[in-house]
Amino acid sequence: MSDTLLRHGLAMLATAFLLVSPARSETGEPGCRPEMARSRLPISLANLGKDEVRLTFIGHATFLIETPGGVKAATDYNDYVRPPGTPDIATMNKAHSTHYSRAPDPAIKRVLPGWDQSGAGAAKHDITFGDLRVRNVPTNIRTYSGGTDFDGNSMFVFEIGDLCIAHLGHLHHPLEPGHLRALGRVDIVLFPVDGSYTLDQEGMLEVLKSLQARVMIPMHFFGGGTLNRFLSRSQDLWPVERREQSQIVLSKASLPAKPTIIVLPGY
Length: 267
Hints:
Layout (H helix, E strand, L loop, with lengths): L2 H18 L13 H5 L13 E8 L2 E5 L5 E3 L14 E4 L17 E4 L12 E4 L2 E11 L5 E13 L2 E5 L9 H7 L4 E5 L8 H11 L3 E5 L4 H11 L5 E3 L4 E5 L8 E4 L4
Parallel strand pairs: 3-4, 4-5, 9-10, 10-11, 11-14, 12-14
Antiparallel strand pairs: 1-2, 1-13, 2-3, 6-7, 7-8, 8-9
């Protein structure tokens, strides 16, 4: 083989490796390149009924939440995985760089960090934008030295009409009665299942039991193995529905009669 052909072959192999290698955050937590997430999105532009909400799992811990009034909110908005287009509201958490952005799109109307960037205490958000109300419930996170960053992150609650959606973010610990009171009724919960970077899987099961949401959508899993381990632990507790699309439309009337885990394809 000539040197030219050899160099060409090595270049092709290097390119293929980069295309299939998962992106990682600065902290080592696996992430996703935006183009990987976008290529799987069956984004629908259909209008929503007055009591409906559209959820699209963008990837990792990012969901796009759309209201009947056309308001769009992105959860754990970051520089690795972003929804197509610009959301009106972006929530962020700081445990890893796959959960916040250093350079949010300046067209975003409200950027809500889940921690107080001045270090003065807990973040406090309670805003209404169009037909969407967003508020936060602070939680603690572990530090890299093994300590506790009190009120370092937030769970965000999205209220659309009669529906209450809770995104648990990078939850590191069980929920206490005060957290549950602050969250209030939760109809749909978006929760991490990796079991190592966030709360362990047994602890997450206890969180879900305490919330009693009718729809439970897992996120923050690094491959099917992690997700399946969680589902094997929960199989005697709740039914599981696996969807082929990353998008789902829900309303108060369409919620399942019993708490159900709904799995959307993602990362």
